[in-house]
Design the sequence.
C-alpha cells in the first residue's frame, strides 16, 4: 500500500503544481490586463486634458473675435452717426444761407455765406473717435448728435417701430 499512497501523494503534488502554475498564469494575465487598462486610461486622460486646453483656447479666441466684432459695429455706428450729423449740419447751414440771401428789394450788394463742412471719416479705430471739422458762418444750430453705446447701437435717436 505504500506504493499506492506514494502514487496518490505524487498525483496530489502534481495536481497542486498544475493548479499553482495555472494560478500564476491567471495572475500574470490579470496583471498584464491591468497594466494595459492603466495605459489606456492615461492616454485617455492626456487626450481629455489636450481637449480641455483646446476648448479654453477656442473660448479665448471666440471672446477676442466677439470683442473685435463689437468694436467694428461701434465704429460703423460712429461713421453712420457722423454722416447723419454732417448731413443735418449741411441742411441747417443751407437753410440759414437761403434765409440770409438778399432779395430783389434789398441792396444789390452780394451777401456771402462761408460754409465749409469737411467730414473726416476713416476706418473704425477703437482708440480714436471719428471727427468732423465744421466751420460755419453764420452760426447754425443743429440737434445734438446721437451717442453710440458700448454695443455699437445708436442712442438718442427716436425710431418708430410698429409691428
Sequence:
Amino acid at each position: 500500500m505504500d506504493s499506492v499512497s506514494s502514487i496518490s501523494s505524487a498525483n496530489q503534488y502534481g495536481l497542486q503544481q498544475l493548479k499553482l502554475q495555472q494560478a500564476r498564469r491567471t495572475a500574470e494575465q490579470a496583471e498584464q490586463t491591468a497594466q494595459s487598462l492603466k495605459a489606456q486610461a492615461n492616454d485617455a486622460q492626456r487626450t481629455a486634458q489636450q481637449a480641455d486646453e483646446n476648448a479654453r483656447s477656442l473660448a479665448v479666441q471666440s471672446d477676442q473675435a466677439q470683442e473685435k466684432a463689437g468694436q467694428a459695429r461701434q465704429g460703423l455706428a460712429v461713421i453712420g452717426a457722423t454722416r447723419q450729423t454732417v448731413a443735418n449740419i449741411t441742411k441747417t447751414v443751407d437753410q440759414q444761407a437761403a434765409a440770409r440771401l438778399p432779395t430783389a428789394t434789398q441792396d444789390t450788394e452780394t451777401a456771402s455765406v462761408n460754409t465749409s463742412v469737411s467730414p473726416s471719416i476713416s476706418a473704425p479705430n477703437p482708440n480714436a473717435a471719428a471727427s468732423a471739422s465744421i466751420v460755419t458762418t453764420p452760426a447754425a444750430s443743429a440737434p445734438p448728435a446721437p451717442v453710440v453705446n458700448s454695443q455699437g447701437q445708436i442712442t438718442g435717436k427716436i425710431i418708430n417701430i410698429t409691428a
Observations:
- The beta strands are 115-120, 131-136, 147-148, 154-155.
- The helical segments are 2-100.
